[in-house]
Amino acid sequence: MTTQLESPRPAADRSGSGRPRPTKESLGADVAASFVVFLVALPLCVGVAVASGVPAELGIITGVVGGLVVGFLPGSTMQVSGPAAGLTVLVSSTVAEQGLAMLGVIVLGAGLSQMLLAATKLGTWFRAISPSVVKGMLAGIGLVLILGQIYPVGGLEQPTSTGDKFAGIPGLLTTMVSTPAGISGLGMTVLTLLIMVFWGKAPQRVRIVPAALVAVAGASLLSTVLDLPLSTIQVGSLFEAVNAPSLGSFSGLTDTAVLGAILTFALIASCESLFSAAGIDQMHDGPKTNYNKELMAQGVGNSVCGLLGALPLTAVIVRSSTNLRAGARTKLSRILHGVWMLLFVVMLPGVLSFIPKAVLAALLLHAAWKLIAPGQVAELARTHRSEAYIAVITAVTIVATDLLVGTLTGLGLAIIKAAWEMSRMSIDSDNADDEVRVELSGNASFLRLPRLLNHLESQPPTGHAHVDLSGVRHLDLASRQAVESWAAQRRRHGGTVEVSLPEHAG
């Protein structure tokens, strides 16, 4: 059942493009919504950057590009773009392997790839990816994100490899309960998470203030008042943080690992953006997303981020749904949220230095838990057990190896499952006196060939046999040749065989 948010209907478009345009009536709602989205997006931009192992400024630059560049372009009216928690694992491993200097090249390549996919009208095909693979991909990202973000809670730097992260957990737990920084970090994390969870139960008039803002502001204020020994984020000049790729960096495009990273960034970012679009479209009754235009907008945004050496961007459903709930009417709200972010960081960068890293880690832990969504996995297991297996295997493979290998594993399993189910074939036989009748229906493919041959070879070797294939929807060459070979062998032993082929078999 789809729930419609109680947000005003977007203002009608008078240009004939089908997109709502700002009016005097919608201006106030859009300005108010943009400010709410800005307050939610700013700490998330910083948190995603820190979790990705890059300077906090790069996350803010990506958020500004998501508002000022992607926000202007056609595609989706209500989606808000910026750095996403789902890409932190990929960015972190890429920066560790290729270096920060190559980040811009990879993000630029991913953006150009997205633009190519959009230009060739392949945007809508992303909707065809198996939901179980997407669920497994998101759950795997969430698990890896949790595994990394528990370390800032204790005031420690997260290890680079998955094995080291697991191995370091005992020492982390000891630090959390035995050192002032660890105890303080654990307390602030728990407080932040409690506010995030229980703010939704507050009265409606109070909940107009986003939970993320209340949690970050409250925990940061308490940490400052108590003078807790917690490390905080440091944000400098955005202009000095620009990490534009040098000409020499493009020589890395000859490296297959770099090319693989570009394709992975493009695939994951596109999937996240377009799946977010599908979800947001169900939440409002305004104009729906044009998937190819949205993919083009995301590609342009990532190309700009690449030229600036910033983080990759995607449409983020948390910010997008916040935009809707805050009463946004047109795309002006998402544009303005980028304006507020830029003005805030330029004019008041020192305010961000009061936010402890443990509080940002709590925000990302909350986001990671939503990515895992154990309730959805449990529901999937009750209704479609095989789909749940694919989701779990995908998630576990991502944790054990990396995002690309895990996602490709899930896609492979989904394709095998689909092929197996599409090859369903039923065999009925009737033996009477000296006549055998074998009737097939469904799809006769090589995947069911062993079963077909076993059934045919179990029939009496003499007498008349009638193999009726007329009811088969699909008869591949392997199955047809197998039947013909069995018939020829039966005739050599003195039997007679009649084979009825489907009309489409020729």
TrEMBL record:
Domain SLC26A/SulP transporter as annotated: residue spans: 29-394
Compartment annotation: Membrane
GO cellular component, one term: membrane
One of the GO biological process terms: transmembrane transport
Taxonomic superkingdom: Bacteria
Parts of the chain that traverse the membrane: 31-51, 58-80, 100-120, 132-151, 171-199, 257-280, 300-318, 339-369, 389-416
Keyword terms of this UniProt record: Membrane, Transmembrane, Transmembrane helix
Domain annotation MlaB-like STAS: ranges: 438-500
Principal place of residence: membrane
PANTHER family documented for this protein: SULFATE TRANSPORTER
Protein name: MFS superfamily sulfate permease-like transporter
Lineage summary: Bacteria, Bacillati, Actinomycetota, Actinomycetes, Pseudonocardiales
